[in-house]
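S.,

As promised, the zinc ion run. Input:
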Amino acid sequence: MRLLEHVPLRTCLGCGKRATKGTLIRFTRPAGGTLQLGLDAATGRGGYIHRDQACWRQFATRKGLLRSLRCNVDRPERVALIEQITQNEPVASLG
Ligand SMILES: [Zn+2]
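Predicted complex:
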């Protein structure tokens, strides 16, 4: 049994803090598409956000580039993603 596992950290696009992948919701933006839940296996390009309404609000209202997605995303599209999350992420569900 290894005591020191390598734990990959990802940055929450809401609060900007780093956290382990397991505590974050993954989402992606396929080429030509809009933000959606889940990670695009083809590109591996995705974003992460806490299961926390405060982070969702920050994500929806923040300005600037979403660096991990390498693109800018209009606010209505971000709000739509948050709506997807609230519908698909009941507290007990761990993607
Ligand atoms: Zn966060």
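Residues 9-88 form a domain with the Hypothetical Cytosolic Protein; Chain: A; fold (CATH 3.30.1230.10). The pocket of zinc ion is lined by residues 12, 14-15, 17, 50, 52, 55 (CB under 6 Å).

- D.
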